[in-house]
Write a structure and sequence with these properties.
heterodimer; A: about 550 residues; alpha+beta; Jelly Rolls; ten-stranded antiparallel beta sheet; B: about 170 residues; mainly alpha; Arc Repressor Mutant, subunit A; about 80% helix
């Protein structure tokens, strides 16, 4: 199981397959498109650019490797089209020039005769306006070159050439002819539009512009309401924190427990808080959906923003532990804003100002960093001088009296995600468990009985972290708790007394109390990656070890 | 294009286009890129006839051409592959077998129809609607870690189910 999860290529393939099987993305049928492209390709290949006469089915032509003449790539066709158009236009201009200029030198030149009847008609006094409209586009071209030279020549023989009668008019309107000297440039540009219709250049566009089934954003829908945080199981039922909530600042406060009936059914015991809601509590625990812990002694509102979650501290104080989560938490008070990407800090609202004490990691305010062990005050004028935290800061009741942040929990209701290394799951009644409800345990028997499982990915340890275990052992002489560190290829562990046989015990061991199992000297520093948990015993042949749950928690204290 | 050549190409495309397209997507091509590169792959192969030993060999050859085309495309765009290409080819060959992955996807679809409750919801929110894990957590009223764990379990069960069906 574990090697499945450490194979990113397989993970990626599985994700894509599930997306496809779920109908989100399916391979398109490109048959027609490919055949059409091949058809065009066949035509390209079959006609040589030189003569255009070799249109032979590809099947009867020599294999590609033996061809003597390679088909021109499409870009050359495009170029050829442009050149061809330019040549045609030049020829047209030349003909027009000859037609126009011809009469000046040859009064009754033959080339002009074919067109003259049309051109001659407008020469009639009343007809000129009608004529000039349709013929303008054609006449402009010949005008360009001849004009400077022809002006004097045109005058003597107005009747002979088509353009001639108009030229004088245009010459009279000299201010307008100014654009005409630029027309030669237009002549060059004109082949442009003609080159567009060249057959090949359009084809690539077709392929690019194919309609495509795309991306995640198209399918997204955001059902309301958006849950931002939750009060963990048992926190309010302990009765110590008196949680109250309201859905907007204008609503009345209500007991949080009562809102359980309002929310959609949930198969866990969390009480969810939604975007825009406010919570009032007396040092109560609240977890954000990214795993961050808030301990709130006052009033806070819950919101989201593009990159994370935002907590508006409305009254009093709160502690936020956002170490090693995946998103940023913003703490705001009015326009004051603090970013916590990887840190833990205490906030106190004080007459429009926000006192900040960074307990671990760091927080950021207007580009300034407050590191662990330092404090400052944020007001409308900005951040005050950053000072070293005092003992009073460190002894704040929210730090010394709060419950630890839960970093991970394995309750053995099903096999651990990372898989068992040793042990198996069994069901126990409430009586057997010594709890209110029936449940499951992980169990192993024998003189080396052990419950061991892989974490769901490596766990990076945090400062102040502890491991807690509820277990029961019989026939044990000694217990060993250890966690494997892949980087060292060894365990960090601790030897323990097994406690009274047959009774449930809860162990709580600080990770800083674990030791390298070889030297027995080094503790795992914060940030150490651990991959598995083991609780093992040494004892009698019929020894038995049961583990109800294993929990990783972090104490919110500075300097651990 | 001669009729026999056209039929030959059509047969090749119909048999392998889905596998090639999937492979390109797997390597990191966006949908539209996969469309274009699939087309280029078949045109390239069609212009340079090859020996057709069997479906699996042909599929492997097409994937090789597709991969080269994709790498050229990435180079032109200044991008790099998102996966280890060697490992990806190995994984994909196992998945695709000789039908481009059709059998695998069909088996997976059947297995997914058996999902219920939160497992079904998380597949819908994460894979169908395309929400991030964090967003899925808020929508499903779970923690992000919880979603991660649930997804892992769902994938494990689907993997086992597909393996059973394909045996």
């Amino acid at each position: 199981m574990s090697d499945e999860t450490n194979n990113p290529e397989r993970e990626r393939l599985e994700d894509l397959n599930i997306e496809e099987a779920a109908g989100r993305v399916t391979p398109p049928d490109l048959t027609a498109r490919i055949l059409a492209a091949a058809q065009r390709g066949a035509i390209d290949d079959a006609v040589t650019p030189i003569s255009g006469a070799h249109s032979v089915p590809r099947s009867v032509r020599p294999p590609a490797g033996r061809r003597m003449t390679a088909a021109l790539p499409r870009r050359n066709w495009q170029g050829a089209g442009i050149v061809l158009s330019a040549v045609l236009l030049f020829a047209l201009a030349l003909v027009a020039f000859v037609v126009w200029k011809g009469p000046a030198e040859k009064p009754t030149g033959q080339p002009a005769t074919a067109e003259q009847p049309r051109d001659v008609q407008p020469e009639a006094p009343g007809a000129s306006p009608k004529r000039s409209i349709p013929e303008e586009p054609q006449e402009r071209e010949p005008e360009k070159q001849p004009k400077p030279d022809l002006e004097p020549r045109v005058e003597p023989k107005p009747e002979e050439g088509t353009p001639e009668p108009e030229r004088p008019e245009e010459i009279v309107e000299e201010p307008k002819p100014e654009p005409e000297p630029r027309q030669p440039e237009d002549v060059v540009e004109q082949p442009g539009p003609e080159s567009k219709p060249a057959p090949e250049p359009e084809q690539p566009k077709e392929t690019v512009e194919q309609p495509k089934p795309d991306d995640k954003s198209e399918v997204k829908s955001t059902p309301a309401p958006v849950a931002v945080a939750y009060v963990p199981d048992g926190a309010y039922s302990r009765g110590a924190h008196h949680y109250q909530f309201r859905k907007s600042p204008d609503d009345e406060w209500a007991k949080l427990y009562s809102q359980l009936k309002d929310i959609p059914p949930s198969n866990d015991d969390k009480t969810w808080l939604y975007e825009g809601w406010q919570l009032r509590s007396e040092a109560g625990d609240v977890y954000l959906t990214n795993g961050a812990l808030i301990q709130l002694d006052g009033v806070a509102g819950f919101h989201t923003f593009a990159n994370g979650l935002r907590i508006e501290l409305v009254e009093d104080e709160m502690y936020v532990d956002n170490l090693a989560t995946t998103s940023t938490v913003q703490v705001t008070q009015g326009e004051l804003l603090v970013n916590i990407s990887d840190g833990a800090a205490l906030f106190e609202s004080r007459s429009g100002k926000l006192d900040i004490f960074c307990v671990d990691g760091q927080v950021e305010v207007d580009g300034k960093i407050i590191a662990a062990g330092y404090a400052a005050t944020l007001g409308k004028r900005g951040l005050s001088r950053i000072r070293e935290a005092t003992q009073r800061d460190m002894d704040h009741p929210l730090l010394t009296g709060a419950t630890p942040r839960q970093l991970g929990l394995e309750e053995f209701d099903s096999e651990p995600v990372g898989g068992f290394i040793q042990g198996a799951i069994e069901t126990r009644s409430a009586t057997e468990l010594g709890t209110d409800d029936a449940g499951h345990v992980a169990i192993d028997t024998g003189r080396d009985a052990a419950v061991a499982f892989q974490f769901d990915g490596d766990h990076a340890t945090l400062r102040g972290e502890s491991v807690r275990v509820r277990y029961r052992a019989t026939g044990a002489k000694k217990l060993i708790l250890q966690m494997f560190c892949p980087a060292r290829n060894d365990n960090f562990g601790i030897d323990l007394e097994p406690g009274k046989a047959g009774e449930w015990h809860v162990l709580e061991i600080k990770l800083s109390d674990l030791r390298d199992r070889v030297s027995h000297k080094d503790a795992p520093p914060p940030g150490t990656l651990l991959s598995s948990f083991t609780l093992a015993l040494t004892g009698q042949d019929d020894a038995q070890l049961e583990v109800d749950w294993v929990e990783l928690v972090r104490e919110p204290r500075y300097g651990e | 294009m001669a009729i026999d050549r056209r039929l030959e190409l059509e047969k090749l495309v119909r048999a392998h286009q889905r596998g090639v397209w999937r492979y390109l997507r797997y390597l990191g091509a966006a949908n539209a890129e996969a469309d274009d590169l699939t087309q280029e792959t078949f045109l390239a192969v069609w212009k340079q006839p090859f020996d057709d030993y069997d479906e699996r060999a042909t599929a492997a050859y097409l994937r090789q051409v597709a991969k080269n085309r994709f790498l050229m495309h990435l180079r032109a765009k200044g991008r790099r592959p998102e996966v280890n290409l060697e490992a990806a080819e190995h994984e994909f060959a196992g998945f695709a077998r000789d039908d481009g992955g059709e059998g695998h996807i069909a088996a997976l679809s059947e297995c997914m129809q058996g999902l219920q409750g939160k497992a079904k919801q998380v597949v819908d929110v994460y894979y169908v609607q395309g929400h991030s894990r964090a967003a899925a957590a808020t929508l499903l009223q779970m923690t992000e870690e919880g979603v991660k764990t649930l997804l892992r379990r769902v994938k494990d069960s689907l993997r086992e189910c597909v393996e059973r069906k394909l045996k």
